[in-house]
Write a structure and sequence with these properties.
63 residues; alpha+beta; two-stranded antiparallel sheet; 2 helices; 4 strands; globular
Length: 63
């Protein structure tokens, strides 16, 4: 089974099971939570150039 790497926290994500995804420059990125998705959408170049930084600050857990 194909696993994608969440570019924000580095967690492995199953693309067929997550509802958190976004397209940036023609490529689909998958996320473990809405918090990681939002962090990526706020500054995608940071995560693409420097790699995962760990979980962003969260207001609640809704993975």
């Amino acid at each position: 089974m194909y696993r994608a790497l969440d570019p924000v926290c580095g967690m492995e994500v199953n693309p067929t099971e997550t509802s958190y995804k976004t397209v940036y420059r023609g490529k689909v990125y998958y996320f473990c939570s809405r918090h990681c998705k939002k962090a990526f959408e706020d500054d995608p170049e940071t995560y693409l150039s420097k790699g995962p930084k760990g979980m962003p600050a969260m207001g609640g857990d809704d993975r």
